[in-house]
Specification:
Blueprint: E1 4-10, E2 13-19, H1 25-32, E3 51-54, E4 57-60, E5 73-75, H2 84-95, H3 105-118, H4 124-130, H5 142-153, H6 170-178, E6 210-217, H7 221-228, H8 231-237, E7 241-246, E8 251-260, E9 263-276, E10 281-290, E11 296-307, E12 313-324, H9 333-355, E13 368-369, H10 370-387
Parallel strand pairs: 1-5, 8-13
Antiparallel strand pairs: 1-2, 3-4, 3-5, 6-12, 7-8, 8-9, 9-10, 10-11, 11-12
Length: 389
């Protein structure tokens, strides 16, 4: 593997180091620059111990290639010596016993800093939600929450680290090509717009997991079909969904936002939609990519609206999906099935409202909140276990 030179600014100092294209930012900071304040825990982007700022945004450094940070400003926990807000957080963590072993603390401080600067009116419930992507095995979180609330409630100093916009550097693409990636690297601050040529084929999804679901409606099949066959209407029913354009040959381009604590993904992509009006059925196949995590989602959906003999209609869905990249850790079939049911319940409620000529309830539709969905999944599992004991 050919080494490459990575140029970036770390804690205010320009850095130029030669490293392998596959080197993650956390290893780059620890091994190349000897900044060991960034801790490695799960190395899968889940525990949050490795969280640092990249261009002012909290970033999992264990799943971010150093090469994708070409030209970026990186701030690790060592880079806040003269920052008044971080000094206030450190003092509060000490006074409220917000740390024990200290392994999670660097990531907690970075996330806490982001909470204070971004959510000045946050209450304890919101702070806990924002911290849900940072795991601690010692404190029980009470001291950490108390420390952040202390800073929020006592006129916190202004944050000196703010989000920035950065354009993709040429060396980012060459880095990915060096390790044999099949897709071009994306900007950490903007999702890629996929070209029609990159839409997956049925054969590429032949061995992917499948999921079949049905939903019944107390409405005529024609009313339901009028909603599900309209790309703009069905996009408005999808939490976090946004349709950007439709071509004459039913090529759809849009995006879907997903949040998992501080992990935020914006899948931008293209899909091809074919409809059979006579049979009230359709077929959609597409691909989306997230610029920050470099994850890719390929999917195929067959749907049909059927009139029921007893009245009403049934919507059948047969889905095939394949998630690759760092976010694939959340694609275990059982978990996906449970989460899909929760999402489908929201979508079905919106379809029902539109079919009745009403506006859907969009209060929970701003994005796909993975943590709240997973919480409901786990509660469902617990209830089923207790029911059968």
């Amino acid at each position: 593997m050919t080494n490459m030179t990575v140029d970036l600014v770390v804690n205010g100092t320009p850095v130029s180091e030669t490293t392998e294209p596959r080197t993650h930012l956390a290893d780059f900071l620890r091994e190349e620059l000897h900044l060991t304040g960034t801790h490695l825990g799960c190395e899968q982007g889940v525990c949050g111990a490795c969280t640092v700022f990249v261009d002012g945004r909290p970033t999992r450094s264990c799943i971010t290639l150093a090469a994708t940070c070409e030209g970026a400003e990186v701030r690790s926990v060592e880079g806040f010596d003269d920052d008044a807000l971080m000094a206030a957080l450190r003092d509060a963590f000490k006074r409220h016993h917000g740390l024990q072993c200290g392994y999670c603390t660097p990531g907690m401080l970075v996330t806490g800093y982001d909470i204070v600067r971004r959510l000045p009116n946050a209450d304890a419930t919101r702070v806990r939600k924002e911290l849900s992507g940072n795991l601690c095995r010692c404190t029980g979180y009470a001291g950490i929450v108390a420390a952040i609330m202390d800073v929020l409630e006592n006129n916190p100093p202004l944050a000196t680290v703010q989000p920035q916009t950065r354009t993709v550097q040429k060396s980012e693409k060459s880095a990915v090509e060096s390790i044999g990636a099949t897709a071009s690297i994306l900007s950490p601050v903007a999702a890629e717009k996929i070209t029609p040529a990159s839409i997956p084929t049925k054969s590429s999804l032949a061995e992917a997991p499948t999921l079949s679901r049905t939903r019944r409606f107390d409405l005529a099949a024609t009313d339901i079909w009028n909603v599900v066959s309209d790309p703009e209407k069905i996009a408005s029913c999808m939490p976090g969904g946004q349709l950007d354009s439709i071509t004459d040959d039913n090529l759809l381009q849009g995006k879907c936002a997903v949040s998992m604590g501080p992990i935020k993904a914006a899948f931008a992509g293209t899909a091809k939609m074919d409809l059979n009006e006579a049979e009230k059925s359709g077929h959609v196949i597409g691909r989306g990519k997230d610029g920050l995590s470099r994850s890719q989602l390929d999917g195929m959906l067959d749907f049909k609206v059927i009139s029921l003999p007893e009245g009403g209609a049934e919507l059948t869905l047969d889905m095939v999906y394949k998630l690759t990249g760092p976010l694939s850790q959340f694609s275990r079939p059982t978990l996906v099935a449970e989460i899909a049911d929760r999402i489908l319940d929201q979508v079905a409620a919106s379809i029902d409202a539109l079919a009745r000529g009403q506006e859907p309830d969009l209060t929970t539709q701003s994005n796909l909140n993975g943590l709240s969905l997973m919480a409901s999944v786990f509660m469902g599992w617990i209830k089923r276990v207790l029911r059968f004991r």
